[in-house]
Amino acid sequence: MRHLVQAIALACCSVLATAGSSAMAQETVRIGWLSSLTGPLSSAAIAENQGVVFAVDEINKAGGILGRKVELLTRDTAGDPVKAVNLAQQLVFADKAQFIIGPVNSGEALATVPSLARAGIPNIIIGSLDELTNPAKYPLAFRTINTNTQWIAAANAYAIDVLKRRKVAIIGDTSGYGTASAKAAAALLAKAGITPVYSVLVDPNKTDLTDEMTKARAAGADVVMPWSAATGLCARLLNTRGDMGWDVPIVGHPSVMALPLKALLNKPSYWGNTFAAGYVSTTYRDGKLPERTQALMDAVKPALGGEIGFTFWWVALGYDSMKLVVYAATKADSLDPQKIKDALEHTSDYAGVYGTYSWSPTEHNGFPDSGMAMDSADTFNEGSYQAAPR
Amino acid sequence: MLSVIVSGLAVGAVYVITALIYNLMYSTSKVLSVTTGHICMLGGVFGAWFTTVLGWPVLPALLGAVAIGTLFGVVTELVAVRRVLARSDEHLWLLSTLALATMTQQAVGLWWGTEPRRFPRVIPQDFSHGAADQKFWLPIGVMVVAALGLELFYRRTMWGKLFQATSEDAFAARARGISTDRVRMMSYAISGALGGLGGFAAGQLTFAYFALGLTLTLNGFIAIAVGGLGSSVGALVGGLALGLLSAFATYLFGGEFQQTIAVGLLMLVLLIRPEGLFGARGVRAV
Amino acid sequence: MRRLAAGLAIAVALAALPSWATNQYQVHLATLIGVYWVLIAGLNLVVGYSGQLSIGHVGLLAIGAYVYAVLAGTWDWPPLLALAASGAAGGLCGLLLGLPSLRLPGFYFAMATLAFSLIVAELSLAMGSVTGGGTGLAVPGFPAPFDTPGGLYWLVLGIAGIVTLLTWNVASRMWGLALIAIRDSPVAASAAGISIFRAKLTVFVFSGVTAGLAGALFAALQSYITPDTFAFDIGLFFFVCIIIGGRGSILGPFLGTVVLTALPEVVAPLAKLGNFFYGALLLVVVLVIPEGIGHLVEIAAARIARRRRHESHVVQPDLPRLAAALARGPAA
């Protein structure tokens, strides 16, 4: 009887195993899209998804890539690195994806980038941690978003050169992103000759930040720099600063100006004296946005329900990342990974909406320093911001 | 320093309420339910939902949160405890309450979101009061009321005596005509109500957060294990001690070792005095 | 003889999986199932046989993974040696965890293991200089011939096979019966002379060793580990695999592992529900089929084989005969 049961077990395994595969048509270009549509960082992922989907529609209406329609394979990683690796493997081997965009979450990307590199699939990186690109280790990975260093450098430059502060308090979170950023921020400050007077990592779900802010104040900090992608944590930080009645400027990660914060603040005035790293492409200059940004906004608005109630550069990033695949394939006139790599490595000043990109054989980060800007947090208007005062 | 003590007492008060709930449920069913912390979580989440999303005023929202808590307590009893107690296998209730707790936590996470969300002000008050802020004193107040209320309940009311009878000897109670099923249901309902109230009061301290359930289950358990299962005084002492210890440890060493210190306390007490500080050493005939 | 032949056939089929799998993703999935099974096989003895409800075993998995990542990566040890060290580390931590906790009653023990897994998660964040903190660690793979997906699969298969054999031996011999006795009636067991604490501790340490090995293999498979990889959810998942599969059997939890790992990959909406699904499944099993689905499969298989189940003999009084005997009166 036992061996019969064992045979049934084997049959179950085989059925389940083979059920994972699927027959694919060869006529489409299959692009895998790994994003955390549920779970942490879902608001960014959902907005980026809007950009990606819109771009796919636009591309297919214009005839597709090299005459073939684009088939978008969206996979929700839910912020789980194990799932992200599994889904990446599934996309590459079972669904035969030819490009992978994502994942959004740096923690997941740290796990998938090596595995996709081993599989030899071009990977468009949209996570900001510096370690995600490496021309030697990951030859087929190209980044469209800015690097973490660019965010930190922009914020540091503003705090030190414009606001003329020297006593910095760094508050990061214990996620993969937060830990790496806090360390990088301290390193960049050291290069400018500044040692932080207070530096701490908190759980992104920590609800009471009074201890940390009190200690920062006691250490004599004259600027607080948060490096966390968790909007809830940023809101609590702003609330603590306001409740304490401490008028220290907060300069840091773009989450500090994300719209969801508005509903989380105890008082709207708490959003004042707060500045975040932003982009030229989504900053108002004399009341106007750059042409390309405005054009994309007008085109996408109907699909978003007529109004843009979230940070627009996410949409622009998703859009640009998808269009980059078309650009690379067209330039290389092929879908062969090596030819794509060559095409991208010899690209300079490719004008997207989110930025104007350049890559080279030694530099796989495409976003230029000149694309960075500093914005005032409480000036949200249809996805973009006013520049921070200089 | 004062703010550290006050916040420690406030967090401790939440643990005390959870520990009292453990006691209540254990008294009539000999079951330690994994869903204990989740009752408080639901009180906080639904309180926030009623006030911020549905726009109800504070009092109806409070009643709503208490009602939800009671409902959840009853559901726990019906689904996870009643059928399982009928079987002789000792451990099944742990599995069923664990399953129910997981389902509740995940369902709330899917519906409410995975980030801690703001809990609104209950009493109009400025934000600048520091240690006198209501987010500290509401849980402490509820804890005192709950502890006193339960004592009065046990000693002065008929139902309280029924609870005590059932907890001391269920067979004898049944022989005297007490419907132990109904008593158990009552105790779970009261636990649910208390948890809903506690979660609502603590909402400003803990925020409306789906993962709070498991944290409170564990910490409330540490409180009752340290203080002694079955003793209200033990619940008070255990909860407040744990709260103060966590607050001071976080203040002195940073929040990085919070769990380690809390469990360290637990292990220490359990090694020296396994039944807790105020618990009774159980002798069982075999 | 037939059982041996069937067993060999299955072993050959499993070993040849990289050849008959249609793509590398399936090999990856099969390797993941194998890794989970290495841990669950050991945990099965603790949960399924001796009835100690350890819900926090993910802590031991994390320890195995980090020990391997640090030894083989940062300190450059030979990977196979690091693998063995991970197993030893897991066993040691199992001993340290089990010594104070195994004497505690059921709920207390479960909470202690839960607290342990939370402590491990906390320490892996706090000890950033060793563990890389939130950023995590890159994990080197094994040397040839285990550095290809197929090769890693064979390594995992081999270790899983050995562990299964060990647990099967324990379960079917006197040890296994002793464990079941401890689970179902500790008082009777100790009255029969079984040293309860020693048995529970030995089994727990063994499960620590398998968890450590599984952790190292898991880390090599993932090639990158961060603290969020080892959330409490995985610990619950292992536990559910065993309960659903059925306590007191080896095949049941194995089936449970295969089904629960593969299911979210195959049925996409389930992936979104995630833990809710596991909780619901656990609740249904506990309320309706406490013996587990493995038991159901056995009943079904027995029906198919049309073998009569062992019927218990209830002694009923044969009343007509009794009446006749009474009527007859006492024998002369």
Which structural class do you get from the secondary structure elements of chain B? mainly alpha
What helical percentage do the residues of chain C reach?
Answer: over 70%
The count of β-strands of chain C is 2
Write the CATH architecture name of chain C. Orthogonal Bundle
Lateral arrangement of strands in the main beta sheet of chain C: 1-2
The two chains with the largest interface, and their residue counts, are: A-C, 50 and 52 residues
How many domains is the backbone of chain C divided into?
A: 1
Class by alpha and beta content of chain C:
mainly alpha
3D shape of chain C = globular
CATH class descriptor of chain B: Mainly Alpha
- Contiguous uncertain segments of 5+ residues of chain B: none
Largest sheet of chain C: 2 strands, antiparallel
Indicate the radius of gyration of chain C in whole angstroms: 23 Å
**How would you state the average pLDDT of chain C, rounded?**
84
Explain this structure:
- The complex is a heterotrimer of chains A (390), B (286) and C (332).
- Chain A is α/β, with parallel strands linked by helices.
- Chain A folds into 2 domains: 29-147 and 298-370, Response regulator (Rossmann fold, 3-Layer(aba) Sandwich); 149-285 and 374-386, Response regulator (Rossmann fold, 3-Layer(aba) Sandwich).
- Chain A is built from 12 helices and 15 strands.
- Chain B contains 11 helices and no strands.
- Chain B has helices at residues 2-29, 36-53, 58-86, 92-112, 134-156, 158-168, 170-175, 180-206, 212-227, 232-253, 258-272.
- With 286 residues, chain B is mainly α.
- Chain C has 332 residues and is mainly α.
- Chain C contains 17 helices and 2 strands.
- Chain C has helices at 2-15, 17-20, 24-49, 58-74, 79-101, 106-126, 128-131, 149-172, 174-184, 186-191, 196-222, 232-245, 251-266, 268-273, 275-288, 293-304, 319-328; strands at residues 137-138, 224-225.
- In chain C, helix 3 packs antiparallel against helix 11 and helix 4 (58-74) packs antiparallel against helix 5 (79-101).
- The chains are: A alpha/beta (390), B mainly alpha (286), C mainly alpha (332).
- Chains in contact: A-B, A-C, B-C.
- At the A-C interface, helix 1, helix 3, helix 4 and helix 6 of A face helix 1, helix 3, strand 2, helix 13 and helix 16 of C.
